[in-house]
From TrEMBL:
Residues 23-60 form the Transposase IS66 C-terminal domain. It comes from Caldimonas brevitalea. Pfam families: DDE_Tnp_IS66_C. InterPro entries: IS66_C. It comes from the Bacteria. This is Mobile element protein.
């Protein structure tokens, strides 16, 4: 097991997917958001959010629900 072992978590495609999630979590932290609340809010609202406004869900533009 080396430092790149996480790249193959489960399957060949799981590594890049895990990297995307880790990137979103770190970006949320860098923008001062709680990563758990950010992911929970985005994933819960994803089905009803319009596709043409998807950039609003990125960590640097996301606003927590009041």
């Amino acid at each position: 097991m080396g430092r790149k072992a996480w790249l193959f978590a489960g399957s060949e495609l799981a590594g890049p997917r895990a990297a995307m999630v880790m990137s979103l979590v770190q970006s949320a932290r860098l923008h001062g958001h709680d990563p758990w609340l950010y992911l929970k809010d985005v994933l819960e609202g994803l089905l009803v959010h319009p596709n043409h406004r998807i950039e609003e869900l990125l960590p640097h533009r996301w606003k927590p629900a009041a």
